[in-house]
Each structure stands twice: as structure tokens, then as C-alpha cells.
Amino acid sequence: MFNALFFKTFITLVETGSFTQTARKLGMTQPGVSQHVRKLEDYFSLPLLDRKGKRFELTEAGRQVYDYALRLFAEHEQFRHTLEQEMVEGGECRFASVETFGMLFYPFALGYLKNHPRLRLHFTFADNQQAVEWVQARKIDLALVSSQQQHPHLICEPYLQESLVVIVPADFQGNSFQELLSLGFIGHQEGQEHASKLLKANFPHEFKGFHQLTERSHVNQVQLVLDTVARGLGFSVLPRSVWEASPWQQQTREWHLAEEVSWPVYTVRRAKEQLAERYQHLLDEYLHWRQVSSSRPDN
């Protein structure tokens, strides 16, 4: 009778060269190991071992069975991996994301991971260019970027729109554009673009360009921007999700404006490959969570 367990025992025996070590490694008895070998010899009607006291050598049939067993388990593992790749509940998700989006998405993904124990997550923070290059190089499968990408071998699709907000120290009492400017600006990697879009939309006559802002500090890690604002050193413009993901909400606040301006997030993937369903499931769950969070009265 064909039994994969007999092949596993035989592989271990050949690799250890010892019945004792094989039994210990597999949690068996030595007679149990011998029985599995005899079962294989009966199955193939050929001797697999040339026994010499406590030692043994493989017969020609034994070498062929060993090679076959290795192929058998390698093909089994490849099939298991391929099947897992197609599952929503299992397999690996390989993402790269701009930091301004990933600050909230990554903690959400960790919670999602906890509820899907067969899922694995590989997540890297990167700028737009680096994230796209990693998709092309097959280091990741999906990039989440803040600018639209044009490439013949990639598919770039809109994913969501995040609201940009002005964040000021909690005790800031100013109401005018000039009072905001007097605080100074805390810059970050996308700070100039964010601030220019939002301020131009809300102060079309007063805002003449980014040169009007005095940059008190510039930091390339966006999570440190709100630390700086919390210390009363200036204001910044960020996606609302960055502020919501920060530990500085008590020391800072949103400076409300009349005109809402959105910041786009795009997904980028390889054009001729279809992503496993688990990627879309995770993205859809995050969108639903954001919609629910945004509709709450305290938001």
C-alpha cells in the first residue's frame, strides 16, 4: 500500500544514516522505522538496503526510491504553496507603501493578520519610485503609492482618496491665515505638495506659494512630524489618517477649513499577473473600516 509516511521515514533514514537517529527525529521506535522500510520493500518487491550489521548501504533500487521520494515531497510542497497562494485565508501578502498611507494601513493589517492565522504579511515602507521598482523586480507584489504611474508592464489603479488636514498645537487659538503662518511650517517628504494644495484651495487670494511658509523643521519620517507640532514648534499638513494613527492627538488638533482637498492613493501591480484574492480582500476590508470610521459622529 502506498503511504507517504513510509517515504518520509526512508528519506530521514538515508539522510541520518542511523535507525536510532531516525526514530528519535521522527518520534518513533527503531522497530517502527524498520517496519516502514520493510513496507516500502514489499511495495516495490525489491530490497532497498544492503544491511551490514548496524550499518547499511543503499541498493540501486534504494537510491532510485530515495530520489523519487525527494521529488514526491518537493512536488507536494510546491502544490501546497500554489494552492495556498490562491486562498483568501492563507499565503503571503507582499506590500510596499508610502509612509503617509502605511502609518494607518499597517496597524490595520496587523489586526487583520491576527484574525487570519494562516496569512503572512511582508510590509515595507518606501517612496513612490522605490515601491514601483520593487514591484518590477518582483520583490513585492503590490505597491501603494501617492502618484499615478505610467509603465507598459504595470497596472496603476486609484484606490482611495484621503482628506488633507492642517494640524496645529492643541493650544493654538489663531483663526486667520496670517496667524497660521506665524506658527511656522513643519515639513516632510510630501509636505510642500500637501500644504500647497490645501492652502491654495482655502486661501486663494492670500496664499501665493510655498515660499510664504517659514519651515521651522523638516523631517523625513512622517511619524515625527506630529511630535514636532505637539511641542508647539509649528503646523503641518498631512492626510487625516496619519494624524489618526499618531499618539499625539491630545497635544494637537485639526485646524478646520471650509474646502476639503483629497490626497490620492494608487495600487500598482504587474500587468500580466493576477494577484491572489487575499490582496483584494485585505484592501476591501481596509476601505470598509475607513468608511465606517469616517462616518462616526466623533469624526
Describe the structure.
It is a single chain. With 299 residues, the chain is an alpha/beta fold. It has three domains: 4-85, Winged helix-like DNA-binding domain superfamily/Winged helix DNA-binding domain (Arc Repressor Mutant, subunit A); 90-161 and 263-295, D-Maltodextrin-Binding Protein, domain 2; 162-262, Periplasmic binding protein-like II (D-Maltodextrin-Binding Protein, domain 2, 3-Layer(aba) Sandwich), CATH 3.40.190.10. It is 46% helix and 23% strand. The chain has eleven helices and eleven strands. The chain has helices spanning 4-16, 19-26, 30-44, 60-85, 99-114, 128-136, 177-183, 191-202, 222-230, 240-244, 277-295, and strands at residues 49-52, 55-58, 90-97, 118-125, 142-145, 154-169, 185-187, 215-218, 236-239, 252-255, 262-270. The strands form three sheets. Strands 3, 4, 5, 6, 9, 10 and 11 form a seven-stranded mixed beta sheet that branches. A two-stranded antiparallel sheet has the order 1-2. Helix 1 (4-16) packs across helix 4 (60-85) and helix 2 (19-26) packs across helix 3 (30-44). The radius of gyration is 30 Å and the shape is elongated. The N and C termini lie far apart (65 Å). The model has no long low-confidence stretch (mean pLDDT 91). InterPro entries: LysR_HTH_N (IPR000847), LysR_subst-bd (IPR005119), WH-like_DNA-bd_sf (IPR036388), WH_DNA-bd_sf (IPR036390). This is Transcriptional regulator, LysR family. Belongs to the LysR transcriptional regulatory family. Residues 1-59 form the HTH lysR-type domain. It comes from Marinospirillum celere.
